[in-house]
């Protein structure tokens, strides 16, 4: 099993758990913004490609759910991409 697929499975489980705590559009928004922030932190802190692949592409890629947000026509459709990009930038800036 590759590190990316293992991370993706773990990220999907984490996303499901968070969706039980915060259902609906707010949950999707929280998952995507938090995941984007953590991707920014990861890129600022971790220089090793395999670690980035496991956490970035795998775990946080499985955690975030931009395909699901696009299917829900609500405020999340407009707010999520803007807030997610800002969160990733903030995460990167915090670590550098």
From TrEMBL:
Residues passing through the membrane, by range: 20-43, 50-69, 75-94
- Would you kindly state one Gene Ontology biological process term found in this protein's UniProt entry? cellular detoxification of fluoride
Q: Name one GO molecular function term.
A: fluoride channel activity
Its cellular-component GO annotations read:
plasma membrane
Q: What is this entry's stated membrane topology?
A: Multi-pass membrane protein
Reactions catalysed, as given in the entry: fluoride(in) = fluoride(out)
* Inhibition and activation profile: Na(+) is not transported, but it plays an essential structural role and its presence is essential for fluoride channel function.
Q: Does the keyword Metal-binding apply?
A: yes
- Kindly give the InterPro entries that the UniProt entry links to this protein: FluC
Q: What is its main location?
A: membrane
Which locations, inside or outside the cell, does it occupy? Cell membrane
Query: For Na(+), which residues are the binding ones?
Result: 61, 64
Q: Which domain of life is it from?
A: Bacteria
Q: Which UniProt keywords apply?
A: Cell membrane, Ion channel, Ion transport, Membrane, Metal-binding, Sodium, Transmembrane, Transmembrane helix, Transport
What family does the Swiss-Prot or TrEMBL record give for this protein? Belongs to the fluoride channel Fluc/FEX (TC 1.A.43) family.
- Known function: Fluoride-specific ion channel. Important for reducing fluoride concentration in the cell, thus reducing its toxicity.
UniProt cross-references to HAMAP family, sorted A to Z: FluC (MF_00454)
Official protein name in the record: Fluoride-specific ion channel FluC
Question: Per UniProt, what is the name of the gene that codes for the protein in this document?
Answer: fluC
């Amino acid at each position: 099993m590759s590190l990316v697929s293992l991370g993706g499975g773990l990220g999907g489980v984490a996303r499901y758990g968070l969706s039980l705590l915060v259902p609906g559009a707010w949950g999707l928004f929280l998952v995507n913004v938090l995941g984007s922030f953590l991707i920014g932190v990861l890129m600022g802190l971790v220089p090793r490609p395999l670690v980035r692949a496991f956490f970035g592409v795998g775990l946080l890629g499985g955690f975030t759910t931009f395909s699901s947000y696009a299917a829900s026509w609500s405020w999340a459709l407009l707010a999520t991409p803007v807030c997610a990009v800002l969160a990733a930038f903030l995460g990167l800036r915090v670590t550098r």
